[in-house]
Design brief:
heterotrimer, A: mainly alpha, 2 strands, globular, B: alpha/beta, six-stranded mixed beta sheet, 10 helices, 36% helix
Chain lengths: 374, 241, 289
């Protein structure tokens, strides 16, 4: 999975997780590896790897026992949640601890549409992302007045505000019990069908997000992350770009939330709680924020570990905590970063052996801070 | 105190700022550290005191290597660092600033007491209850020097002390440097304004891209057109001494 | 009038305990520039330790237990600082948030092992557990205890920061840690002390509130959010701002309960949003550079 797209998120983001003061990471539109014309063989390899991964997941969805296929279905939707969150974290440099709100909005639109008999399932699924985007627009207007740590804490507060509202307005939302019931249409009742429904929606959504990060808009977003003042001085409307990213992220987090309902046929307040908002952040951190597929890898690693460990130990949280500490303090570029670092190391030493020095490693080099080491 | 810096290599993230910088300051000597903006003067000073530890090389203070020591050690050994800009404890009063400085190095006894600082800088005595953040630029420079003096240092590192000061204050600053010299303190003065450095130091180093490009007396530096252009000054300035 | 008095005392008591927790967090942030999501866990440990020490008895032992619980929490804070937090100084907000969230998870699970899943209660000594009547209002005596402790903590902090050389050092660290360190202060030791004091305050608060709350897992999660709200609208790093903000949050909560009970907890978020729209860096904070 890690090697399917090795598109680096951005060159010179040494300021990423490491010492912020080391700055220096200038705005280099057109420089670094962001705009490198990618060799055709690389593109082919990426497409090939992506197709292979999809094939494996699809086959697993068919051959696995239903309960495991359900687990896989959930992981796929979480991967979308993590990728959508990482649009802010890794690409935008905006640490949001409040994406659970949009996830919850997506889930509740579907669940409440069913409970109050106002929306058909399809209507609700179509409405959910726009509801998420609308909420993101208004919260973004407020939250983006602040920056960095304040932004993180404000989004965390929004998450908790959403949780509180859903919990307290029990006459409309079902309160702390949440909404449960047979809310799926008949054509989605077969678990295998549901699996492929979730898979297709997630893959399409992730592909769109990939296009977003790969677009000029994504480039500006990264430039803002690396050097906000400089981009501002160039006349770019920083606020509008960040707000747009926040809205897009909210949109796709809501998609993931609506898929949660397909998986669980329920929605409950804890989906919006700040600790839930942390989950996609951890997935991105574990998988690596600076490569596009990082959060996907993180979601698989996180959820598999979760599912497996909860069966065998009561100390899942302790283990998760230790892993998070280890990643964040020792390997700030996450799993994919480590794999990339290893790969380029192997490649570089291989090249040295063969005496080729022409290519260096800028085409597909690691994007993590380790990549910038002289 | 004798300061010997040998082959310092310092990195900021991925950029290699100091690439083997070396220098010597003898006890009581005033030495200039010249170089353009971005040459690495500030980094060199920060590496000497340990705020940005160097990756290799050595910083010897009276023969003791401080390269990997935490910043507070150099201060306690008598090496005072005055960073550039308005670096005072802005929410503390002037008196509290000086008191914090004095108690930071409790074992360093010597001629400099709070009382003497107030005598030498009567202006500071006048504003002793005022918040340091509300002082003028000149008063803040005074406070920075006072803060260094109450620790009874043997050597003072000044990073761009003239930056952003009015010409009249620069002149005053020159007098204060003279005072430090008379007290037999070693001085390492990092300056972009070469004219100021010339007036107050006898010997200088020219730092370029993290390396020492030249070392010699200030006269030698001024007599070389090449070095002048490296410093970005075309004219020979009026000698004020 | 009586009704008003009841509300005022209740609000002050809530704001008081909130202030104690938040003051510790803001002190740590001010001096170290580290945000600690596990601060609420320290509060919860204070409360759990209190239930262990007090046991079934009341009386003098109650007061000793508060002190003991707080001191142990301070020691726990020191261990956290030495093991993890000191490596977060100067790191990006995300690193700090994730790492301290990890601490939060570890401490929550450990507490589950130590004290189990059930809720525990503590009975205050009879001298402070009754009610008293003033101007027709019947008020719990223990509210006054909490207010008293909070005021004492506030005065103590003020005296520490204004009138002791350690306090000047802490304020100097808030202003410019580099200058302080290169001036001869062992910043790591100072940070360790600040973190321990911050933990101590959380421990005191957790121990003191036990007679009025049910002590159970999840306390950490709910208090940290409110604490963060207080600290953010007070202005990160400002103790006075924190006191002010604790009052604002307390008042918002009370007013909310009176005006629209089902929307009560929404009110304090509205207060936060309102403050941040006007002053994005908090009431007494300084804009981030």
């Amino acid at each position: 999975m890690a090697t399917s797209f090795d598109q680096p998120v951005g060159a010179g983001h040494a300021a990423g997780l490491s010492d912020g003061k080391s700055g220096g990471a200038g705005l280099r539109p057109g420089g670094g590896s962001d705009m490198m014309p990618v060799r055709r063989s690389v593109v082919a390899r990426r497409i090939g790897a992506t197709v292979a991964c999809l094939a494996v997941v699809s086959i697993l969805g068919v051959v696995l026992p239903v309960s495991s296929a359900l687990d896989l279905e959930y992981v796929v939707s979480l991967a979308l949640f993590a990728v959508a969150t990482n649009l802010l974290l890794g690409f935008g440099g905006m640490v949001s601890f409040g994406q659970g709100v949009f996830y919850g909005v997506g889930a509740y639109v579907v669940a409440l549409g069913w409970m109050h008999h106002v929306l058909s399932f399809v209507e609700a699924m179509l409405l959910a992302p726009f509801a998420g985007a609308a909420v993101a627009f208004f919260l973004g207007l407020l939250a983006l007045r602040t920056r960095r740590l304040y932004f993180a804490l404000i989004t965390l507060a929004f998450s908790q505000l959403g949780y509180t509202i859903v919990q307290d307005q029990s006459s409309f939302t079902g309160g702390s019990n949440g909404v449960f019931g047979a809310m799926l249409p008949s054509w989605l009742l077969d678990p295998r069908t549901a699996f492929f429904f979730v898979l297709v929606v997630s893959v399409v959504a992730i592909a769109v997000l990939w296009k977003v990060t790969d677009s000029p808009f994504g480039l500006v977003l990264r430039a803002i992350r690396d050097n906000r003042e400089r981009v501002d001085a160039m006349g770019v409307n920083v606020f509008a770009h960040q707000l747009a990213a926040f809205v897009i992220s909210g949109f796709f987090c809501a998609v993931a939330g609506s898929l949660f309902v397909v998986y669980s046929q329920s929605a409950y307040p804890a989906l919006l709680e700040w600790t839930s908002s942390g989950t996609p952040v951890f997935m991105a951190v574990i998988g690596g924020m600076y490569l596009f597929p990082g959060p996907i890898v993180g979601a698989f690693a996180y959820q598999l570990a979760n599912t497996y460990l909860i069966e065998h130990t009561q100390d899942w949280q302790i283990i998760l905590g230790v892993v998070l500490l280890a990643v964040v303090l020792l390997r700030p570029d996450g799993l994919t970063g480590s794999i990339e670092g290893l790969r380029s190391l192997v490649r570089r030493s291989g090249e040295r052996v063969r005496g080729r020095h022409r290519h260096g490693s800028n085409g597909t080099g690691p994007a993590g801070p380790a990549g910038g080491e002289p | 105190m004798r300061l010997v810096v040998e082959g310092l290599h310092t990195y900021y993230g991925a950029s290699h700022v100091l690439q083997g910088a070396s220098l010597v300051v003898e006890p009581g000597e005033a030495v200039a550290l010249l170089g353009r903006n971005g040459a690495g003067k500030t980094t060199l000073m920060r590496s000497i005191v340990g705020l940005t530890p160097a990756r290799s090389g050595s910083v010897l203070v009276d023969g003791r290597d401080l390269r990997r020591a935490p910043p507070y050690r150099s201060a306690r050994l008598g090496l005072a660092f005055l960073p550039s800009g308005r670096r005072v404890f802005s929410s503390l009063s002037v008196a509290e600033n000086l008191e914090v400085a004095r108690r930071s190095c409790p074992r360093r006894r010597g001629p400099w007491t709070l009382k003497r600082v107030y005598e030498v800088f009567p202006k500071l005595a006048e504003v002793r209850t005022r918040r340091a953040g509300h002082l003028s630029g000149g008063e803040q420079q005074m406070l920075k020097i006072g803060r260094a003096l109450v620790t009874n240092p043997e050597m003072v590192l000044l990073d761009e002390p003239t930056e952003g000061l009015a010409p009249a204050v620069v002149e005053e600053l020159g007098q204060w440097l003279g005072l430090l010299t008379r007290e037999n303190l070693g001085i390492l003065l990092a300056e972009q304004s070469a004219a100021f450095a010339l007036a107050h130091t006898a010997r200088g180093y020219l730092l370029e891209k993290g390396r020492m490009r030249f070392e010699g007396t200030m006269e030698e530096i001024w007599d070389s057109a090449e070095l002048r252009s490296a410093l970005g000054v075309a004219e020979h300035p009026n000698r004020t001494r | 009038m009586a009704r008003f008095l009841i509300e005022v005392i209740g609000t002050l008591s809530d704001a008081g305990s909130l202030f104690m927790v938040a003051a510790g967090l803001t002190l740590i942030f001010g001096a170290m520039r580290v945000i600690n999501l596990a601060h609420g866990s320290l509060y919860m440990y204070g409360a759990f330790l209190m239930t262990t020490f007090v046991g079934a008895s009341s009386g003098l032992r109650f007061w000793w237990s508060i002190a003991l619980a707080a001191v142990i929490v301070a020691a726990l804070g020191a261990v956290m600082e030495l093991g993890i937090v000191r490596f977060l100084v100067g790191k990006e907000p995300l690193t700090q948030l994730v790492a301290t969230f990890a601490l939060f998870l570890i401490l929550a699970d450990t507490a589950l092992h130590l004290w189990g899943n059930g809720a525990r209660t503590v009975v205050a000594p009879s001298s402070v557990s009754g009610r008293f009547t003033i101007a027709g209002a019947v008020l719990p005596v223990y509210d006054l205890v909490i207010i008293g402790v909070a005021v004492a903590v506030g005065i103590g902090l003020w005296a520490l920061l204004r009138h002791t050389s350690v306090g000047w050092r802490i304020r100097a660290a808030v202003d410019d840690p580099e200058v302080l360190e290169s001036g001869g202060v062992n910043l790591r030791r100072l940070n360790l002390g600040v973190f321990a004091v911050g933990a101590l305050l959380a421990g005191i608060a957790g121990a003191v509130v036990t007679p009025q709350v049910s002590v159970a897992p999840g306390m950490d999660e709910s208090i940290i959010v409110t604490t963060l709200l207080v600290v953010v609208i007070g202005g990160l790093g400002s103790v006075t701002g924190t006191a002010l903000a604790a009052l604002v949050i307390g008042i918002a909560d009370t007013v909310g309960t009176l005006v629209a009970p089902t929307w009560a907890s929404t009110f304090m978020y509205l207060a936060v949003i309102l403050v941040l729209v006007v002053r994005p860096w908090g009431l007494l904070g300084t804009p981030e550079r």
